[in-house]
Predict the structure.
Amino acid sequence: MGLVILAAASALVLWLSWRIFQGGRALRKRGVRTEAKCVNIAGGPNGSFKLTIEFTTDNARGIRTSVAPFDLPPVRVGGLLGVVYDPREPVNVSTPDRVGNGRVALCFVVVSATTLLLSVGLLALSVLALALG
């Protein structure tokens, strides 16, 4: 049963870390910098803050989304915040200082994929051993 839980947890971490890596990669490769207006600040778990922002894309599409978490809000409601968005998926947005290089997410991808492969292999061996005898 422990191997099944390990495989499921590894698959979940792999999926999440891959999404984070791909989202950051899109911002690094084709991200567009712009200014967003803060329209709301909400308190989040552990005392963090989430900002609801609005901005207009290069093709004049209005976007309303959120960025989080912040220990302290970097702007007040009505203030402007520099952001980077993906023109193919404009709700994929971050502040320029949080785009990063993707190494942490990629490490999680590699470790979770390796753990998933090992746990599935050990599960297969366990099933085979039960079947044979």
User: Anything to note?
Assistant: Residues 103-132 form the longest helix (30 residues). The longest strand covers residues 32-43.
